[in-house]
Amino acid sequence: MTRTVSVTPFKDQKPGTSGLRKKVPVFQTPGYTEAFIQSVFDSLEHYQGKTLVIGGDGRFYNREVIQTALRMAAANGFGRVLVGQGGILSTPAASHLIRKYEAFGGLILSASHNPGGPTEDFGIKYNISNGGPAPEKITDAIYARTQVIDRYSIADFADVDLDALGTFEGGGMTIEVVDPVADYAALMETLFDFDAIRTLVAGGFRVAFDAMHAVTGPYAREILVRRLGVDPAWVLNATPLEDFGGHHPDPNLVHAKELHDLMMGPDAPDFGAASDGDGDRNLIIGRGVFVTPSDSLAMLAANAHLAPGYRNGLKGIARSMPTSGAADRVAAKLGVEMHETPTGWKFFGNLLDAGRCTICGEESAGTGSDHVREKDGLWAVLLWLNILAVRKQSVMEIVEDHWAEYGRTYYSRHDYEAIDTGQANALIGALEGRLDSLAGHRAGSLKIAKADSFTYHDPVDGSVSRNQGIRIFFEGGSRLVFRLSGTGTSGATLRIYMERHEPDPARHGQETQAALSPVVEAAEALADIRKWTGRTAPTVIT
Ligand code: G1P
Ligand code: ZN
User: Fold this and answer.
1) Shortest-distance Cα residue to atom 13 of ligand 1
2) 473-507 pLDDT tens trace
3) Domains and CATH numbers, the chain
4) Nearest atom within ligand 1 for CA of residue 345
5) For residue 188, which of 354, 482, 394, 385 has the smallest C-alpha distance?
6) Is 362 in the pocket of ligand 1 (CB under 6 A)?
7) What separation in Å is there between the alpha carbon of 245 and the centre of ligand 2?
8) Cβ–ligand 1 contact at 275 (below 6 Å)
9) Which residue, of 203, 211, 282, 487, has the fewest CB within 10 Å?
10) Contact (CB, 8 A) for 341 and 455
11) Is the CB of 364 within 6 Å of ligand 1?
């Protein structure tokens, strides 16, 4: 039986960079989750009888929302839902399932690297049939719908047993509970030389992987341990927990500090990696060397041809605007297209679909390729392992060779989290108001060459996205970027991105923050960060 339930709009359901993100108690408000899911369905057309993929990162409230989404999918006329066993699907695995089974789209339940638990974060994101995040046209339509929605439809049937693999019927719809790992692992086998990686590992190369009690645990056990022979004792925090063990499942130097310390210590394994809540991000650390995500993108792009899936070379490379220019130098050398897009994976979708790029990445620990339409944490780990297996060098040697060839791009991001939204907007507004007059002036010891607010013209569909961050280019090639986060759930988060290119190998051994200090000073001089945020230091430095 299907019911129609009246609801009044919740005016705050604006999907951000990665869908709708709120605290769990907000999603638990009666009708809140239903109003958003119905707004998603109401913004789509011609899905009757088609397939929807549903899965999440296993965080608190995942199972409840999946049961609701199943009942609403049935009531709204979907013909079939594929749902990951236990409600689990990593974001890249969900993207793959949508593509492989030619689904109409998918609902991915995650708040990525944000903490989980009864008072922590939850999120719902809609992905389209190419497997990627819905483009702005659709997220705008969803938001518009949330403003006026007055009812939702839901079928009445008992909870589906998400732990049992198999096919069920609910509200006239077919529900298939599928193995969340199998299809994804098979895809990885087509891209990478598993034999070569197995030989590397069997030869004593030690791999450590921190799943951070998040979704990649089962994937790492199957792929790294069972198929590649990695010592299970080195797959850390491999059991997904609803609250991620009370930690932030965020693979950065703050939240993956244990792994970092291990990798810098005397008994460091040869290779260390971590992924985030929903498995789309990656952290790569070699023995004694942290690889910044911007560098990792460049190094993966320069070496991708060593893996079977990329043997024929790259069609192009894409990076988000705040990501460093290291990859641009690789694209120039390879003679392939380079694209600079706004922050958020959804902007890569058109380029990937049109065959304009093969590899893409973001400074925020996201790297991926045209194999799915999301960033993919384990994919990056496997590509690194494949490259290491073929080059038979250490991570340190590969990094140093790369810098020697292309120069080193020092890079850092300073985040000011949970600051007052009004003050954050005022800081950005004050900068924007001065952009046209900045060229030629000094900021600290640096001279400004050019300043603008980044506008993206999508070369595939012609759409235009404005106000995607403030860019300050300095003479000598350093760059500073200011933007406000689109994924935070409390107050505003100001992100400041700094980079400096250093061609001279004799100067590649500097400490990152020291190497960037002129750019850090310029940021304060330009934006009065202390005054606007009331903070004397960033919350997180990556
Ligand atoms: C952050 C990252 C961005 C990434 C997004 C989703 O968004 O900066 O690169 O695409 O998370 O993982 P932000 O909070 O900066 O809007
Ligand atoms: Zn994520």
Assistant:
1) 485
2) 999 989 999 999 987 767 899 999 999 999 999 99
3) 2-180 (3.40.120.10), 184-406 (3.40.120.10), 408-541 (3.30.310.50)
4) 10
5) 385
6) yes
7) 17
8) no
9) 203
10) no
11) yes
